[in-house]
Amino acid sequence: MSWPLLFVAGLFEIAWAIGLHYSDGLSRPIPTVGTAVALLLSMVLLSRAIQSLPIGTAYAVWTGIGAVGTATLGIALLDEPATVARLGFMSLIVVGIVGLHLVSTG
């Protein structure tokens, strides 16, 4: 059950990272509250996942999901560039996440 929890924690990390953009420096109340809730849920789920996963693996996967997901939404929603190099390096992060999952127990 730890891997699904970790995956959902990563999704909430994406949500709070994107929420920071929409909160406009935490000056808009509704996006700020949504960002805070997503951050709290992400941390709670990560803390549950590390009860049976190695902390280094879990943290690397959690941040990797957040990084790739946030960069992807930056491209899709915020008109950030989708260069070949950027997409290639994002792909390397995904390969690392998959690799850590394949060599880890839990």
Automatic annotation (TrEMBL):
Keywords: Cell membrane, Membrane, Transmembrane, Transmembrane helix, Transport. SUPFAM superfamilies: Multidrug resistance efflux transporter EmrE (SSF103481). Its main location: membrane. One of its GO terms (molecular function) is transmembrane transporter activity. The chain crosses the membrane at residues 27-46, 58-78, 84-103. The keyword Secreted does not apply. One of its GO terms (cellular component) is plasma membrane. It is a multi-pass membrane protein. It is found in: Cell membrane. This is Small multidrug resistance protein.
